């Protein structure tokens, strides 16, 4: 089950006391129609004290789909739409999740979409926010939705016009950090 | 003098007895039952199947499901919250299930974690059986590297078997927990569910009023806020049934009472005569209702509506007394009519008691109701009428003259050979029509609920992936383990039916709790997976070898305890599924496989075939069972009726010789013509049409016998005509009932009695002279 989740990036930078609201973020962060780029992902597994590194390319179309292609160490394509998550390797579909039959998937998909497309309005339904805007912005999201609470402890996002880093802290001590690079709108 | 005093004492004792019975009945809290189930025959079906059916329907009957939909989630959730809180406060409700915290859900999900190597997701098992180990690895890697990756322990469950299982377990029901609410996944608008378990019988009026009263009140407020409620449950049908009973008693009962009252007033021109006739009818109905309640614990809607019809028949006794009273002193009447009265009572009681031959509890209630009611009103006439009529003497002068004139001038059917030939042709055509007709023996005959309610029910059941309580597969074995193994052999066949589109889905215990056999197989498969794939898998992940050994050790260590049925039943999450076990003792066990959606004829046929492949598996189709029972009883009652005519003919021939046709032919011909008309009017015949013909036979015979016995007395003609009229109003008005059973009965009586009266008129002896009073 997708109970523990998500994107990560260690953004240990101290957040200053200057509060920032979802509305203010709207003004700073762009919400592009499309975005492509590369990512590096580090998944820290506390149980093993090991980190799983992976990297690849991604592209998204607002409100339509996110294509998340891992190139190393395995080749795997994850396609997210607001209603489903489909995983495939080569020609084999290895995973298919339907948001309708599984609201958790719906919530995850919604959160992931909102983060990448900087739809702060959507995120406010799931998280409370605190953060700073200084050389871009950095925000800490604390879950307020009970479903999200089961999945993650907190999420930290950092960016300028676009998102640059994302970290998800899970309850069991695992973290997932994603760095976004070479972004093209 | 002493005898008179004794009679007086007996009258008062009788009145006291009525009071006591009434008080007892009121104390027992009256219940009006309208469930189809209680109308069903006491089955000759295999007892285990019956137990299964009862268990399934009992849990079904105490459940009320409410769905709230709105155009936004928050509104719908708030509606559910407020509704649930209101319902929880009611003592009539034993449990309200509407929320499940995410942590509780997590707990339920984690219960099966220790058994993750024994219970495998079906697709995973398929891959393992076919040695597609790389497929499992690909899936595990995909989710491990996904940004939305699952929380897994690479030591305890490196391939994420448990996660896969959980996902698919969740997918099998139409409900998901969302923000603590039970969300209906297949609905177009955000929709949430409340499942209410009632504290008592859904047919108790108090429960109906309290629970539905509150829901309906809230529903109005919610409707204005844009929240729609949909409901499903026996409680709704019970309430609708009770309402219908009230309505029909008010309209049909009042209608027939008024019709009778007006004619009686017109005939006897005296209020006292009318009041006199009401007394035994009223007391008869009161005693009958009370006794039925005390004997059966409840009165069925159909019994009650039918009981209203008793009015017509029990009025006969009063009628006879009053008619004879016209020419005699009050204390002499009884001596004159007692033999006839008792004979009449005896024959009616026999006719109604015959109804209990049909194994429908509803009809047995009717038999008790009728027998008790008739006896009570007869007793009232015998004990009270001599006292009540000592000072009044009713007169029915005018009507007797008019009726006599009708009888005198009526066209005699034996007057010419031409008429006889026409009659024979009509009779022949009628028989032909009846023989060529189709029979409608459908469970819908027993349906009492309005269509809107049934539609709503179906709607809710569809959204919840609801299963039928009347159609399922019954799996029998010596132990639960045996049943589970049988289920597992059936599963591929059922999946085949799903693929062919013959079945929407099914719920089986083995889907939750695999047989121990299957569990051992599964763990062997997992061992193979580890042996083949764990090294390459850990290599890709670049995780040190000692961790891999740890994972192997975990697998070895968890092989010890299989999930037994007893252990499974102790889990929190098993509650929802435990209803799939329908019987278990030391020697035998039984489980059911519930079927989703409605079944076509083709589906039923393939399920039947499928069940024949495996010993100890039955396809139970209660709907078909009921229809079959209706067919066989229609045929049996038809034969019974024919035998009755034959018997009556033989017995009466001894007494009336060549005149016997005047007694037997009217009801026989009337029955045949009525049936033919029914074929034309109602497109087919059913059991309840035939049962009504018993009444036609009874009343027709009464007319014939009384007329011939009293030598065609004018008072007898008045009495039998009036009693036909009262029966016609009492039973015939049931033709306007919305309850199919009563409607069919009523239409038959309506046509049958009109025919019988007309035919008797045409076949009785012409009176010696037209009397002129």
- The secondary-structure element order of chain A is HEEEEEEHHEEHEEE
User: Would you identify the CATH architecture of chain A?
Assistant: Clam
Beta strand count of chain A: 11
Q: Rg of chain B to the nearest angstrom?
A: 35 Å
Tags for this model:
heterodimer, A: 185 residues, alpha+beta, outer membrane lipoprotein receptor (LolB), chain A, 4 helices, 11 strands, disordered N terminus, B: 773 residues, Multidrug efflux transporter AcrB transmembrane fold, 28 helices
Structure, described:
The complex is a heterodimer of chains A (185) and B (773). By secondary structure, chain A is α+β, with helices and mostly antiparallel strands. Chain A has one domain (22-175): Lipoprotein localisation LolA/LolB/LppX (outer membrane lipoprotein receptor (LolB), chain A), CATH 2.50.20. Chain A has four helices and eleven strands; from the N terminus they run αββββββααββαβββ. Chain A has an eleven-stranded antiparallel sheet with strand order 6-5-4-3-2-1-11-10-9-8-7. In chain A, 43% of the residues are buried. Among the domains of chain B are: 1-30 and 280-391, Up-down Bundle (Multidrug efflux transporter AcrB transmembrane fold); 412-436 and 622-773, Up-down Bundle (Multidrug efflux transporter AcrB transmembrane fold), CATH 1.20.1640. Chain B contains 28 helices and 13 strands. In chain B, strand 11 (581-584) and strand 12 form a beta hairpin. Chain B is elongated. The two termini of chain B are 36 Å apart. Chains A and B meet through strand 1, strand 2, strand 4, strand 5 and strand 6 of A and helix 4, helix 6, helix 7 and strand 4 of B.
Q: How would the blueprint of this fold be written?
A:
The complex is a heterodimer of chains A (185) and B (773).
Chain A: H1 22-28, E1 34-45, E2 50-61, E3 65-72, E4 76-81, E5 84-89, E6 92-98, H2 103-116, H3 120-123, E7 127-133, E8 137-143, H4 146-151, E9 154-159, E10 163-169, E11 175-184
Chain B: H1 2-27, E1 32-33, H2 47-61, E2 63-69, H3 73-88, E3 93-97, H4 102-110, H5 122-129, H6 133-145, H7 161-171, E4 175-178, E5 181-184, E6 191-198, H8 205-224, E7 228-233, H9 234-268, H10 271-296, E8 299-300, H11 301-308, H12 310-325, H13 330-353, H14 361-388, H15 397-409, H16 417-436, H17 451-463, E9 467-477, H18 480-499, E10 505-507, H19 509-512, H20 516-541, H21 545-557, H22 565-569, E11 581-584, E12 589-596, H23 601-612, E13 617-621, H24 622-656, H25 660-682, H26 687-709, H27 714-732, H28 740-763
Parallel strand pairs in B: 1-8
Antiparallel strand pairs in B: 2-6, 2-7, 3-6, 4-5, 9-12, 9-13, 10-12, 11-12
């Amino acid at each position: 089950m997708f109970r523990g989740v998500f994107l990560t990036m260690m953004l240990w930078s101290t957040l200053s006391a200057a509060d920032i609201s979802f509305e203010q973020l709207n003004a700073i962060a762009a919400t592009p129609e499309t975005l492509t780029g590369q990512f590096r992902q580090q998944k820290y597994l506390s149980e093993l004290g090991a980190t799983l590194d992976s990297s690849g390319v991604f592209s998204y179309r607002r409100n339509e789909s996110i294509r998340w292609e891992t190139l190393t160490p395995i080749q795997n394509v994850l396609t997210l739409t607001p209603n489903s998550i489909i995983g495939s390797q080569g020609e084999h579909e290895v995973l298919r999740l339907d948001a309708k039959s599984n609201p958790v998937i719906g919530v995850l998909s919604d959160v992931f979409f909102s983060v990448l497309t900087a739809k702060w309005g959507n995120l406010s339904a799931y998280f409370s926010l605190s953060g700073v805007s200084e050389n871009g912005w950095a925000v800490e999201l604390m879950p307020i939705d009970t479903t999200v609470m089961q999945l993650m402890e907190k999420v930290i996002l950092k960016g300028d016009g676009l998102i640059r880093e994302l970290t998800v802290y899970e309850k069991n001590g695992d973290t997932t950090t994603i760095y976004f690079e070479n972004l093209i709108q | 003098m002493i005898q008179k005093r004794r009679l007086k004492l007996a009258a008062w004792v009788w009145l006291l007895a009525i009071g006591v019975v009434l008080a007892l009945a009121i104390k027992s809290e009256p219940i009006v039952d309208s469930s189809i189930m209680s109308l069903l025959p006491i089955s000759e079906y295999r007892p285990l199947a019956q137990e299964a059916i009862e268990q399934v329907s009992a849990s079904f009957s105490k459940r009320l499901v409410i769905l709230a939909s709105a155009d936004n989630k928050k509104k719908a959730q708030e509606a559910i919250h407020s509704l649930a809180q209101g319902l929880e406060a009611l003592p009539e409700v034993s449990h309200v299930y509407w929320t499940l915290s995410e942590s509780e859900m997590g707990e339920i999900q984690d219960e099966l974690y220790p058994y993750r190597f024994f219970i495998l997701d079906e697709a995973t098992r398929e891959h393992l059986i076919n040695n597609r180990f790389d497929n499992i690895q690909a899936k595990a890697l995909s989710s491990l590297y996904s940004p939305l990756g699952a929380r897994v322990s690479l030591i305890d469950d490196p391939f994420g078997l448990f996660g896969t299982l959980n996902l698919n377990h969740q997918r099998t029901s139409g409900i998901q927990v969302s923000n603590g609410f039970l969300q209906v996944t297949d609905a177009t608008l955000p929709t949430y569910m409340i499942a209410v378990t009632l504290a008592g019988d859904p047919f108790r009026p108090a429960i109906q009023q309290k629970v539905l009263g509150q829901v309906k009140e809230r529903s109005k407020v919610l409707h204005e806020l844009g929240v729609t409620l949909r409901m499903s449950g026996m409680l709704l049908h019970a309430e609708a049934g009770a309402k219908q009973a009230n309505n029909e008693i008010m309209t049909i009962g009042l209608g027939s009472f008024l019709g009778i009252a007006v004619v009686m007033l017109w005939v006897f021109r005296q209020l006292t005569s009318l009041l006199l006739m009401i007394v035994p009818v009223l007391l008869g109905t009161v005693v009958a209702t009370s006794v039925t309640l005390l004997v059966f614990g409840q009165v069925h809607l159909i019994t009650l509506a039918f009981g209203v019809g008793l009015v017509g028949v029990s009025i006969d006794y009063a009628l006879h007394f009053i008619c004879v009273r016209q020419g005699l002193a009050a204390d002499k009447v009884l001596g004159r009519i007692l033999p006839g009265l008792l004979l009449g009572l005896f024959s009616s009681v026999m006719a109604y008691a015959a109804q209990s031959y049909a194994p429908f509890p509803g009809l047995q209630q009717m038999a008790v109701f009728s027998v008790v009611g008739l006896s009570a009103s007869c007793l009232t006439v015998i004990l009270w009428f001599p006292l009540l009529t000592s000072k009044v003497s009713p007169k029915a002068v005018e009507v007797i003259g008019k009726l006599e004139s009708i009888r005198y001038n009526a066209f005699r059917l034996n007057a010419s050979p031409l008429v006889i030939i026409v009659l024979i042709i009509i009779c022949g055509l009628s028989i032909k029509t009846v023989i060529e007709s189709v029979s409608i023996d459908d469970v819908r005959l027993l349906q009492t609920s309005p269509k809107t309610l049934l539609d709503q029910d179906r709607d809710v059941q569809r959204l919840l992936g609801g299963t039928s309580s009347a159609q399922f597969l019954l799996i029998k074995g010596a132990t639960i383990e045996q049943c589970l193994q049988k289920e597992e052999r059936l599963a591929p066949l059922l999946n085949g039916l799903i693929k062919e589109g013959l079945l929407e889905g099914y719920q089986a215990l083995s889907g939750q709790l695999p047989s121990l056999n299957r569990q051992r197989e599964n763990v062997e498969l997992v061992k193979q997976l580890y042996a083949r794939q764990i090294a390459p898998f850990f290599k890709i992940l670049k995780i040190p070898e000692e961790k891999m050994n740890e994972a192997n050790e975990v697998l070895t260590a968890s092989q010890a305890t299989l999930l037994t049925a007893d252990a499974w039943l102790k889990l929190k999450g098993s509650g929802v599924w435990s209803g799939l076990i329908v019987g278990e003792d030391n020697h035998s066990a039984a489980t059911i496989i519930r079927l989703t959606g409605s079944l076509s004829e083709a589906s039923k046929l393939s399920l039947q075939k499928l069940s024949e492949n495996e010993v100890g598996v039955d396809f139970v189709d209660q709907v078909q069972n009921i229809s079959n029972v209706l067919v066989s009883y229609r045929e049996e009652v038809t034969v019974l009726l024919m035998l009755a005519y034959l018997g009556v003919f033989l017995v009466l021939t001894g007494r009336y010789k060549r005149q016997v046709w005047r007694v037997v032919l009217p009801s026989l011909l009337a029955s045949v013509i009525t049936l033919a008309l029914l074929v034309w009017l109602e497109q087919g015949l059913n059991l309840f049409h035939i049962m009504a013909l018993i009444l036609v036979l009874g009343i027709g015979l009464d007319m014939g016998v009384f007329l011939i016995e009293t030598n065609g007395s004018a008072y007898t003609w008045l009495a039998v005509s009036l009693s036909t009229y009262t029966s016609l109003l009492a039973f015939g008005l049931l033709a306007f009932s919305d309850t199919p059973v009563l409607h069919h009965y009523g239409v038959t009586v309506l046509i049958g009695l009109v025919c019988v009266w007309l035919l008797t008129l045409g076949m009785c002896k012409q009176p010696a002279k037209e009397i002129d009073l």
